[in-house]
Backbone:
């Protein structure tokens, strides 16, 4: 969402935050224009769609940087959920309350313990639960303790959770931990509380090899939000133009992962992707399913 709004729509999003958009008519119109092509694809293909609230940056630390009090931030989180609720009638929609990392999405700095993460993120997750989301979705998790804390906070709030890990070009988390170990650690510590896991923010060629590692952990991966670009995170951070890659090539890469991820059912995109990529992916996925 954020890369599309910044690079394609030329919108200014201070601190990469999209949640302030829900507070104005102009902002909500921009969000609706962003979501509508995805809803149209779901309607056309006759499939459900999982949408995240635009609240990836709507936690206390990032809110403070943007000048929000906790009360104002709570109102913004609730407004984001209410906005997504307006889209429910337009397709078969599941709404995820999106929880982003306390710090940077690529760099694991100022690490929290699982207990600290549960306490920190529990504030936002409790708001989501009260506002009526379907799931809590933790995106761009780059070290396991924060993900574990979020899974525990969601479980305590009575919400299913989705844990999505960022991986580097070597298929490991930015913390250096292998992906399979991170998934197994969260499951072992929570009794398998997350509804499923996802991989985000990397091109399929970056993590395809690590999926050769056998084990039940692969059955827990049901979602994939890959980058269109093959660039590293460091290169993406320095890029002044959006690398949108090739939608058809990305779609082929997704289909190639079917044999490695038997339970993969939620296919989307991360940095550099837009509705063109999702259209190509969903079309290729449907064709591979029927063949």
Residues:
């Amino acid at each position: 969402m954020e890369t599309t709004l910044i690079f394609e729509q030329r919108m200014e999003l201070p601190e990469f935050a999209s949640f302030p958009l829900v507070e104005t008519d102009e902002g909500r119109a921009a969000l609706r224009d962003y979501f509508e092509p995805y809803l149209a694809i779901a309607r056309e293909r006759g499939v459900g769609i999982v949408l995240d609230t635009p609240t990836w940056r709507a936690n206390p630390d990032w809110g403070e940087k943007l000048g929000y009090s906790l009360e104002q931030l709570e109102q913004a989180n609730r407004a984001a959920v209410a906005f997504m609720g307006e889209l429910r009638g337009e397709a078969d929609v599941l709404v995820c309350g999106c929880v982003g990392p306390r710090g940077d999405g690529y760099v694991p700095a100022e690490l929290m313990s699982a207990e600290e993460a549960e306490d920190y993120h529990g504030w936002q997750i409790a708001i989501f639960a009260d506002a009526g989301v379907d799931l809590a979705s933790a995106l761009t998790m780059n070290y396991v303790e924060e993900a574990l804390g979020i899974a525990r906070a969601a479980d305590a709030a009575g919400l299913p959770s989705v844990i999505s890990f960022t991986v580097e070009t070597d298929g490991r988390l930015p913390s250096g931990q292998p992906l399979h170990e991170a998934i197994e650690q969260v499951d072992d510590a929570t009794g398998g509380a997350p509804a499923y896991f996802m991989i985000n923010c990397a091109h399929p060629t970056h993590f395809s090899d690590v999926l050769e590692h056998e084990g039940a952990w692969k059955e827990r991966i049901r979602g994939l939000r890959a980058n269109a670009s093959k660039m590293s995170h460091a290169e993406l951070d320095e890029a002044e133009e959006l690398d949108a890659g090739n939608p058809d090539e990305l779609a082929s890469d997704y289909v190639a992962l079917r044999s490695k991820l038997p339970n993969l059912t939620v296919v989307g995109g991360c940095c550099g992707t837009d509705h063109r990529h999702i259209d190509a992916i969903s079309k290729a996925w449907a064709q591979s399913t029927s063949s």
Notes: The chain has a mean pLDDT of 94. The chain is about 45% helix and 15% strand.
